[in-house]
Amino acid sequence: MAEQVTPLLRYATVLTCDPHLAQDVVQEVLLRAQQKWDRIGSVDLPNAYVKRMVTNEYLSWRRRRAAKDVALCMTTLESVTPPVADKTHHYDEREAMLQRIAKLPRKQRAAVVLRYYENYEDSEIAQMLGCAEGTVRSHISRALATLRLDHTPEPAGVGLRLGEGLS
Amino acid sequence: MNDTEQLIKDALGQLAERTPHPGPTLNALRRKRKRQRNNIFLIATAGMAAVVVLIFAGVIASDRYAPPNANDAAAALTPGGTGSLKYQPHWLPDGFAEALRAAHDGSTARVWVPADASPEAPHADGPRIQLASGQSYEGGTSQWQDTTVRGLKARVQVNGGTAVVEWKAQDTLFVQVQDVGDPRETAMRVADSVRADSDTNFQAPFTWKGKSADEFSGSSPSDWRAKATVAEIEVGVTSRTPNYSGAPTTPVTARGKQGVVVDGRVVAVQEGSLWITAISYGATKPVDELVAAVNAVEIASNFDTGWIRKK
């Protein structure tokens, strides 16, 4: 059972940007899935179906309020699994990118996660999100535009020059 | 793949490393499964459980308990939030009655279920009809098909026993029909009957730290609950005596009365005929924080429950 729950939790964590909310979403979905297992077990890909239930649960209006209030609080994330110490510049960039991803509208964020974490094709994302492929491309295009707009890397060598000045 | 896309991949990969251990989720599932199996037994013993809770709460044992009165500062009544629900369906299938109203950040939702459905019906599988405004439908796995609602451009999707019709009037609206006859036909007919309505209001039964309760549901005018969720704490006010049988409970003082802590994550206290609860939602909050949340609840002096289970 744990082998089946862990991938779902991992997906939900990336989707919600919040481990606590991920636990909550997965727990609720699995309870519902158990009640309907006769039906779900008969579909072609039951695991994919359950993953879609997780996506829908995250996007549903009942979750919107709670997720809005807690989405990607870094202290929450770190209280669950503190990040491994990593002082590199790239690490800082990843953290900053995570913060920006967490601020994306929910459907854009879900599309980004499915494209860049799950490596889904547009058609698969469209099926998962219940929208047209064109809408998926629009979500991802807008998300990338936002993330690029915010992505203003430091000029090369700034850190080095400061270090040189201090020494 | 450019630098931004690579950085997104790296960032999401890093986030995935913070996936929580499955243990707590598995344990919670086991507990809930067990609870479901015991449901019939619990219903049969609900009366007894209520007495147990009352004893724990000190309501019976404590001589100090008295119902709130107008001069009791702790029970001071204040106006709750009120807002228009804006839209009203003028046709629903026979036997359906309103069971839930919600309002949050300009979005509203109303849910109708069969008049004799359980209190949980608005959130459960089974027959239900929802009208939402100020928000798009964010779910479903089927392709949308174009349609019209009273001449306005609309779209509809059917997924098993659920159909959703979404259209844009003054606000974006959608009707979702679940497990009702022909769901598409029903959803279209309900949608066609929706009209703007300034008379139907959402009256929050309580406020909490300046925020109104945002969801109000029930199975009759005398059996209802309302809740608000902020930062992982769900605060609720209900007319129903909660059933905490089988869960470990300890006494606690909240709102100047004796209440209970249940399973380390719920604080409940009775005030007059109502119960006020704070539930740790997600990470477990310290009991002091839950008590403070309960203390901060201000019950509205005047709110309407007559709409509950009324067509």
UniProtKB/TrEMBL annotation, chain A:
One GO BP: DNA-templated transcription initiation
Organism: Lentzea waywayandensis
Lineage top rank: taxon: Bacteria
InterPro entries: RNA_pol_sigma-70-like, RNA_pol_sigma-70_dom, RNA_pol_sigma70_r2, RNA_pol_sigma70_r4_t2, RNA_pol_sigma_r2, RNA_pol_sigma_r3/r4-like, WH-like_DNA-bd_sf
Name of the protein this chain belongs to: RNA polymerase sigma-70 factor, sigma-E family
Keyword annotations: DNA-binding, Sigma factor, Transcription, Transcription regulation
Single GO MF annotation: sigma factor activity
Record flagged with keyword Transcription: yes
Residues in coiled coil: none
Alphabetical list of Gene3D superfamilies matching this protein: 1.10.1740.10, Winged helix-like DNA-binding domain superfamily/Winged helix DNA-binding domain
SUPFAM superfamilies in UniProt: Sigma2 domain of RNA polymerase sigma factors, Sigma3 and sigma4 domains of RNA polymerase sigma factors
Protein family membership: Belongs to the sigma-70 factor family. ECF subfamily.
Residues covered by the RNA polymerase sigma factor 70 region 4 type domain: 95-147
Domain RNA polymerase sigma-70 region span(s) in chain numbering: 8-66
Keyword RNA-binding: no
Automatic annotation (TrEMBL), chain B:
TM stretches of this protein: 40-61
Transmembrane found in the keyword field: yes
Domain of life: Bacteria
Keywords linked to the UniProt accession: Membrane, Transmembrane, Transmembrane helix
Region feature (Disordered): 117-143
Keyword Transmembrane helix: yes
Biased composition (Polar residues): 132-143
UniProt-recorded name of the protein: Uncharacterized protein
Species this chain originates from: Lentzea waywayandensis
